[in-house]
Amino acid sequence: MTLTAPDAARRRQAERPRLDPRERDRLEHAFRVPRARFMLGVPIALVLLVWSFVGAEFNFAELGEGAANMGEFLSRLFPPTWDKLDVIVDLLIETLQMAIVGTVLGAVLSLVVAFGAASNIAPTWLYYPTRWVMNVIRSLPDLVFALMFVSAVGLGPFAGILAMTIGSIGSIGKVFAEAMESVDDGPVTAMQAVGASRRQVVQYGVLPQAGPLLVSYTLLLFEGNVRGATILGMVGAGGIGLELTTAMKMYDYGHLSAIVICIIVLVTVIDQASAVIRRKIT
Amino acid sequence: MTTATPLAPVPPAAPSDETAALPLVTVRGLKVAYGDGPLVLDGVDLDLHPGELVALLGSSGSGKSTLMRSLTGFAPVNGGTVRVAGYDLTNLRHGQLRGLRADVGQVFQQFNLVGRLSVLTNVLTGGLHDAGPLNLAGGFTGAHRKRALELLDRVGIAHKAKEQARSLSGGQQQRVAIARALMQRPRLILADEPVASLDPKMSDAVLDLLHDIARQDGIPVLVSLHVLPLALEHSDRIVGLAHGEMLVSAPTAELDAERLGVLYAGDDEDGDDDDAHGA
């Protein structure tokens, strides 16, 4: 017995989508004339680039002429003076403490906000407002937050920590949300299929998959906060930044050099430690 | 034999004596379309009885995955009636969907395990619907853990309980997925292409396991397959879809490869896979 459906087969053959002959001809050629959008796009991009260089007053010649001054500035940094090493160490520890607290608070708040900003988790009514708030926070520099919190709670590391924490929500909150959105759908579907609640789907389907990325971004946040804390100190928000600015204003180049070397050592150690942790978790 | 003339839908086959109990799943005149698209399923009838393994056959795009999804609310029901384990899918009340899904164990082609979690935790997630308040802190009760380990014993990989799921072979991962489905204490198991990623030996082993579960636990198991010989060897009954219509529904003993050829007649190679739709 032969049970076939020849008519249906012929019908489907006839309905099968065909490649446009002109497109086929184009694809068959090894070298082809670029599309109009490419021919138009490249000159526009080049014009935009030149416009930006000119507007930003970027000038290699000027850099060459000033190289001697730069060399002179660098030469003044040596030799470093280590007579105030105890002050530098104390302030670096304070900077580190600010970065640790700022990172933990920032990461926790960012995680909470990210749940509302991940399209595969949050309902639409929550998703768009959360994304909008994150965009607003991200568009404001941390220094603005630092000045705001210095005026609110006074000079000191507390203002710096608050600035770092809020600033983190805009930047890390966004990448946290995108890490959650990029997880494999399969396990999420499996959790929905066993009748898990929304919280359980996130707990067992999303977070275990996004975990390594979340930790990696948190370490990146920490590294950034250590560097950021030195800048926040310039507006009186604690840490080594104020000492750095004072040394520059007082032309105390030996002390400035010692501070910079200590910051480089601290950042390098943290960077290496972060790399080890990242390797362990991925 | 219950095959009908080509492209003419057939009614569900009467159950054999062994599976004469009332059907746990009753589908009548099911129509499914995604959005404004064409009908993916058009007037499908299906009964699933306790204790039988039913193979669902059909080429890519025939509507197999959509039929499975429509039984658990992952695909819309645009017409007809679907009753699964006492739930009426055309009239689900708020909150019933989770209850329905908790009653239906699902096994997927790509296993859908959480690779970084341990084998044991993956199995435990099958019991999330009744995990209780301890689960708020990420824990499971001792009773849950004991049952999960017993199920791992049953599928033969308890010795891998502490390993990360991603470190297991494909066949082992599918066994974990089956244990996860059993953890739900399911009244029905749906397995969508569960052996499509496995080698022939492993495919036989997984289908044997599913058949044993159907017989020993007395629950219906619906398995979609691409390979005819596997369906003929491991199923009690075969239902076949072509272009969204059910063309075959008969006890496996009454069918052979030639008779099932109707499901693949005139197939071209670019069938739109209905896997692309929905969950």
How would you describe this protein?
The complex is a heterodimer of chains A (282) and B (279). With 282 residues, chain A is mainly alpha-helical. Chain A has a domain at 85-281: Orthogonal Bundle (MetI-like fold), CATH 1.10.3720.10. In chain A, 79% of the residues lie in helices and 0% in strands. Chain A has helices at residues 6-15, 21-28, 36-55, 60-65, 67-76, 85-117, 124-139, 142-153, 157-181, 185-193, 198-232, 241-249, 253-281. In chain A, α6 (85-117) runs parallel beside α9. Chain B has 279 residues and is α/β, with parallel strands linked by helices. Chain B has a domain at 17-112 and 186-268: 3-Layer(aba) Sandwich (Rossmann fold). In chain B, 27% of the residues lie in helices and 21% in strands. Chain B has helices spanning 64-70, 96-103, 119-124, 142-155, 170-183, 200-217, 228-234, and strands at 25-33, 39-48, 53-57, 79-84, 87-88, 104-107, 188-192, 221-224, 237-242, 245-251. In chain B, α4 (142-155) packs across α5 (170-183). Mean pLDDT of chain B is 86; it is low at 1-9, 14-19 and 275-279. The A-B interface holds A 1-6, 8-10, 12-13, 16, 185-187, 189-197, 200, 203-205, 208-209, 211-212 and B 3, 5-7, 72, 74, 98-106, 108, 110-117, 121, 125-126, 128-129, 131, 135, 138, 177, 180, 183-184, 242-243, 258-259, 261-262, 265-268, 270, 279.
